[in-house]
Structure formats: structure tokens, C-alpha cells
Amino acid sequence: MSPGESSGTNPARDAVLAAVRRALAGTDRAPRAARHRPAAGRPADVDLFVERVRDYRAEVVRCRPDEVAGSVGSALTGVAGVVVPEGLGFDVDGALVDDGLGARELDAIEGVVTLAAAAVAETGTIVLTHGPGQGRRALSLVPDLHVCVVAAEQVLADVPAAIEAVAGQPVTTWISGPSATSDIELIRVEGVHGPRRLVVVLVEPRS
Amino acid sequence: MSGTFVGMPAFPEAAAEALRNAQLRTNLAHATGTIRAKRLAVVGEVEGWEDLRRAGAAIKDEVLLHLDEHLVELERNLQAAGATVHWARDAAEACRIVSGIARSHRVEEVLKIKSMVTQEIGLNEALAADGIAAWETDLAELIVQLGDDLPSHILVPAIHRNRAEIREIFLREMGGVGRPAPADLTDDPARLAEAARLHLREKFLRAKVAVSGANFAVADSGALVVVESEGNGRMCLTLPEVLISVVGIEKVVPTWSDLEVFLQLLPRSSTGERMNPYTSTWTGVVPGDGPQEVHVVLLDNGRTRALADEVGRQALRCIRCSACLNVCPVYERTGGHAYGSVYPGPIGAILNPLLQGPGHDEQTDSLPYASTLCGACFEACPVLIDIPSILVDLRAQVVDARRGGVPGGEALAMKAAARTLGSARKVRRAERIAGLVGRLDLRGRRLPGPGKGWTRERDLPQPAREPFRAWWKRTGGRG
């Protein structure tokens, strides 16, 4: 049996696929010409990334590699309860390391610190693939403050570059500013269900 | 529970009613004007926007012309990633599948991410009939649901409500279905959003089953994509134990790289942002992260009917951005309810008749006429759907479907015109009569009899005193 032929066990599947083939009968189904525009191929502009993240009213802190722990610590000043994923690579004072906390336990924690997999300059986006140092998805969602540490060399020029960078990852989360809504009279309000504050700590090498 | 569109009057009656609502027109003009300006600004930033639109259209055409192959590949990759794939021919079948999964987990409630397709199939009503409450978690959908109201826009379904009305709805209704709104709630949008956050948080934390749609389904990896703003989507995709996604079969894209095109086109066309706050992608069951039981329901419900329509097929490229609504002079004045469907505006005027077929019902048949054919929708569409051409073609299909039976006034007038214009002698006689009528002052007059309707909203044109052919004969065209 070739793939897509009747399996004989799912009449709905057979009916839908047969309806598709009937609908296309007599149509020229030759493959179409190449459709992707060429990749921009330009280098990422880190200053543009900072500007675009701030456009979403997220905060950006720029620091040197040896200042990461300090910058993260300042971002967490006054925050009641912090959780971090395994594999963060630096210490956060008094933080709990996630070992599969329940949703209610996470809800009682105010802040979370994670790394990212990539970032996009053009759109001010950070991309998580939820590997070591980034934590499972709930971790960077339920607490009200998300501090995300991004290395300057992770910043890519545009969306096509980021799509390529995270291809094959089973789960990705693209974050552009804090959670927001414009559902009431189209007035933008930052902070609905996701973290109401996003702080991006951008780590730049010493020049 | 929100209402349904069943039994709505045809567009002309519903539109006339909506046009009398001055508040609605003010809200709509403000809202559509605001989004239009934002969209233009961020679209203008993108070098090669036209190339992107062409790429989006080409990818979707490729999907549609090989839809069977892409669906089979999607199914295979979803199953390989641990998802259970279901197929549904129509709305009732899809609702039965979702309800069956929810009942097998003995839940009394499910959480919902805003999804056009679950509205299209009437899922909330079907679940309610089976004793399961479906809670909408998008802020605007929550406003619509609590207000026992109907959505009026694809992207901002409560666009017809202002902040004072929303405050009233929250104060009155939240307590009956969960955590009440704070007693000192003001109509400040930030306070209203906060009330929604608190109200829904307890539902998120206890949720067992969530239902989503999907913006895209990637055939070569089995990844589903949800594009959102508030984080309610992430909550529903992450915290529950069971996730059911209802996906229209036209949502497939062939490859992961195709997403680069749509993740640029969609946010800029939709909310007028460079990127929406949150985009989630997931591939079946992700061990140790999120729901460990994942279902995907692939839905036809008229899509193969639309696919068979050679002119209308391109409507299935639609990525539900709602740019066409915001630029449409008709939508801007009537709002979404007049279209009598979850898909309002120009895209609704073609999608509903294409999904259901001409001659299905009076209301749907009236939609291809709900347009001035100005073409603004075509210009705004990120996947180049030629809405005006489809509208014209559907008008012809509606006329064909309704041929036979008692002809209306317009059909009678056209028949009389054909008879008259077919004979030189009859044209001369008609011209003489028109010339006589032309001596009367017709300004502000109305036609009697069957012509009455035509002059209700139009001025009667003043016929020339001398017919053209008489003038030509007299002067030879020189005076």
C-alpha cells in the first residue's frame, strides 16, 4: 500500500483525502518555481536589536561577560522568589533550581532567569528552544518577571536567519517584549498572562 | 456562553441596522483607522514586501495543489512525534472527536486559545451540550463570552465594545463563573487586563485539557504553530495534561523554512507589529515539557468544496490576518456582525459562500454583494488573494443557483431592457417616451411600483430632453 492510500480503518480520513483529489482532478499540479526570497545575508546589528526590544517596552541591560551575575542580580532586586533552570552557567543568589515544580508552586515565584537560543535584531525577538539553561516552557511563562541573558553573538539579522538557526528543534518559543494586549479600544497594555516584565541582559565581549 | 450567528438576517438588512448605531460606527472608525496606520508603518519598513507577498502566495498555492500529499506527510510526522491524528469531514464530526477526548478524561471544563476554526464548528456550544464548559482565554474572546455576545472582528473580536461596557461586563459576569472582578475596578484598560489576568490565572493553574487551533502546521516536521500576544496561548499549550488542536486542512505549509515568510507576513499585516509578543511551535509530545497527551484534528468542513472552485481556491491561502477587514470601506461602516458569520469582512464575503456553496441559504448568498469591489482588500492581502475577482465570480454563481422560481424586480427590469434594446423600433419608441419624461422636473421624485425600491436611496436621473439619435440626425454630430 503506498502512503496516503486507503488504510481501510478510518472512513473520515479516506473521505477527506478523496475529496481533495476530486477537487484537484484536471488541475495542473506541476511543482511551482522556487519561492523563497534570497536571505538578506547582512550582519546582525546589535544596537538595532536593543532599540527594537525597547520598542516593546522591555528593559535591556548591556554588560561585559564578567558582569553577568551582577547585572542579573540588579534586575532581580526586590523580587520575591527566583527560579532558574539547570545549566544556567552562573549563580543567582537565593534562586531555586527547577526540578519539575508544579504550576501552583511556580505561580508563587516572582522571577525567573534563563538563557536564549537565538535573537533577532530586526524584530527585537528572543528565541528559546528550551534546552539546558533555558528550562521547560512553563518556567519562563508563569513567573511575572523574566530575565533573559543573551550573548551578542547570538543576535541574528532577521527572521529567516533565526528560522534556520532553530530548525529541527521540537519546541520553540519566540518572545518579543512582555505579554501584551490591544483588545480594549486598541490601546496597548503590557502584561496579561505571560510575564509582565521582560529584562534582556545583553552580554557583549570586551572590544 | 457566547451566542451563535444562526438565523442572522441577510447582509442588506443587518447592515442597515448596524449603520443606525452611531457608537458602533465611531468605535469602528477609530479601531480600523488605528490598525491601518500601524500596519502601513511596519510594512513600509520591510525591503521587498511585495516579494514576500508573492512568496507567501506561492507557498500556499503549492500546498493547495498538492494538499493530499502534504496532509499525509503531516500526519506521518505528527504520529512519529507522539501525537494522535484524527480526521473530521465536517463540524459535527470534529466536535464529536473533541468532546469524546474531553469526556474520556472526565473533565467538566476545557480551556481554549482563541481560534477561528473552533468558532466555525461551534465547538463551545457542542461541548456545553455534553456538559463541558469551554472557557475562552483570549481577552477579547473572554469579553465576548462573558457578555453573551458575538465576535465582530477576526483579530479583535470585541472591537465593537468600549472600555465602559467591558468594565460593566466584568463586574456583572466574572463572579458567576470564577474569581470575581475587583470591586474597585475602573475602566482603565490596564486595570481591565489585570482583572482578566487574575480571573483566568486560577483556571490556567487547574486546567487538565486545553483546545487550540493552529496558525500553521508544518508537514516536513509535524510542528504546529500558534501566534499570539497575551500569553494565554502559551498557558494553554504548556500547563494542561492534554492538548487538542483543531486544524483546518489548508493550514499546512510544506517545510519549516516556509515559516520565515509567514512569520514576517502575519504579525505586520495583522496587529501592525514587527513581531507579535509570543509565537509557540511544538512537535507532538515533548518529553518532560507540556502536555503528554497531544491530539490533532484535521478538519475539512467545506474546504475541499472551496478547493474545487478554480477561481475561489486561492481564498484557502488566507492566514486570518484581518488586514482586509481594516481597509474595507464596507466593514468600517457596518462592523462584523452584519456579515452573520465568524468570518466577517471581505474574506468572509468569499470564504463563507465558498465553504458552504451558493444557494445554501439567503444569508450566505447575500455576502458576495457586501462589497463595492474597490479592491483595497486585494492590495492589503499578504498572500495576494484577489478578493474582488472571486466576489464577481461568486455573484454569478449565486445568480445561477437561484435561476428559476419567481424573478425579482431587477431580473424583470433586465429582461425588459434586453427586449427593448434588441429592436431599433422599440429603442426609438423608448427614447421618445424618455424625451417626454425629460421635460418634467424629476428631482427628488420616486418611481412608482416595482421601481420604488431602486429610488429609495438614489436620485432618479433626469433623462435628456432630446434622445442622442435624434440629436445626431439633426446635427450630424457638429453641434
Distance between the termini of chain A: 62 Å
- Coarse structural class of chain B: alpha/beta
Helical residue percent band of chain B = 40-55%
Major β-sheet of chain B, in short? 6 strands, parallel
Low-confidence stretches of chain B: none
Fraction in helix of chain A = 10-25%
Number of helices of chain B: 23
The coarse overall form of chain A would be: globular
Q: Compute the number of structural domains of chain A.
A: 1
Number of strands of chain A: 12
Question: Any idea of the CATH class of chain A?
Answer: Alpha Beta
Greatest interface (CB-CB under 8 A), with counts per chain:
A-B, 72 and 93 residues
State the major sheet of chain A. 6 strands, parallel
Q: In which order are the strands of the major sheet of chain B placed? A: 1-10-7-4-2-3
Radius of gyration of chain B: 26 Å
Would you give an account of this structure?
The complex is a heterodimer of chains A (207) and B (479). By secondary structure, chain A is α/β, with parallel strands linked by helices. Chain A has one domain (46-203): Rossmann fold. Chain A is 21% helix and 23% strand. Chain A has five helices and twelve strands. A six-stranded parallel sheet of chain A has the order 1-12-7-4-2-3, with helices on both faces. In chain A, a hairpin with a 7-residue loop joins strand 10 and strand 11. The longest helix of chain A is centred in the N-terminal third of the chain and has 14 residues, at 11-24. With 479 residues, chain B is an alpha/beta fold. Among the domains of chain B are: 47-303, NagB/RpiA/CoA transferase-like (Rossmann fold), CATH 3.40.50; 410-475, no CATH class. Chain B is built from 23 helices and ten strands. Chain B has helices spanning 11-19, 22-45, 49-65, 67-80, 91-104, 116-120, 123-129, 139-146, 163-177, 189-206, 232-238, 259-270, 303-307, 323-327, 329-334, 345-356, 362-366, 376-380, 387-401, 409-421, 424-438, 452-456, 468-475, and strands at 84-88, 109-112, 133-136, 209-212, 216-218, 223-228, 242-248, 252-253, 278-283, 293-299. Chain B has a six-stranded parallel sheet, sandwiched between helices. Chain B has a four-stranded mixed sheet with strand order 8-5-6-9. In chain B, a hairpin with a 4-residue loop joins strand 5 (216-218) and strand 6 (223-228). In chain B, helix 3 packs across helix 12 and helix 16 packs across helix 19 (387-401). Chains A and B meet through helix 1, helix 4, helix 5, strand 9 and strand 10 of A and helix 2, helix 3, helix 4, strand 1 and helix 8 of B.
